[in-house]
Specification:
single chain; Ribosomal Protein S8, Chain: A, domain 1; five-stranded antiparallel β-sheet
Length: 201
């Protein structure tokens, strides 16, 4: 009989002081991503529901092998990070389910997008190039910080993106967006991109 590797979890600070990334040694969510900002939204995620049981948790973001938690100012991370890490580890090792259904609300895309689609569909070769740059060069770095960036649209030189997880509401996300992502796209696609805007940030 094949022995299942137990989950281990480690916590990692993110550039956003209100979020902490909890990384597992196994994949938690195969496809897409899930983001919840309240217990009402979290009905499709037994794990998120349990996490909202902590009075200081204000948001749960799940993607790949990590969970990014947002907290209120009522506690400091150093007071709760160990408890949360152990809670998530024990929950997963006892066979607790992470996400049972991905609905359009938790997936945080507009209803015209399929629930597992993260990017808006490219309508031109230029948009395909933008998505490729976001996927290959921007996405991995953003995921490392406990967040996610998706392409929303392109019009008249302006690239619209959606920031999620640790990136959403992060004080340094504007700097990342302007100095990092915008500069990268301007350099790669000269004359085509003039600005990058986070439509939720």
């Amino acid at each position: 009989m094949e022995k299942t590797i137990p989950y281990t979890i480690y916590a990692e600070a993110t550039p956003n002081p209100t979020t902490m990334k909890f990384v597992a040694n196994r994949v938690l969510l195969e496809d897409g991503l899930a983001e919840y900002t309240s217990m009402d939204e979290a009905k499709g995620s037994p794990l998120a529901l349990k996490l909202f049981g902590f009075p200081f948790i204000t948001g749960v973001f799940i993607q790949g092998n990590f969970i990014t938690l947002m907290k209120s100012d009522m506690v400091s991370w150093q007071d709760v990070v160990m408890e949360l890490r152990e809670f998530v580890r024990d929950y997963l090792n006892s066979g607790g389910l992470v996400v049972t259904e991905l609905d359009s609300n938790s997936i945080r895309t507009d209803s015209e997008l399929a629930t597992t689609t993260v990017h808006a569909e490219a309508s031109s070769e230029l948009e395909e190039k933008i998505i490729a740059i976001l996927d290959n060069e921007v996405g991995p770095a953003v995921a490392q910080d406990g967040g996610n960036i998706t392409f929303k649209g392109y019009e008249n030189g302006v690239v619209n993106v959606v920031l999620r997880g640790a990136c959403s509401g992060c004080p340094s996300s504007t700097v990342t967006l302007k100095n990092g992502i915008e500069t990268l796209l301007k350099n790669r696609l000269p004359g085509e991109v003039t600005e990058v805007v986070a439509i939720n940030g």
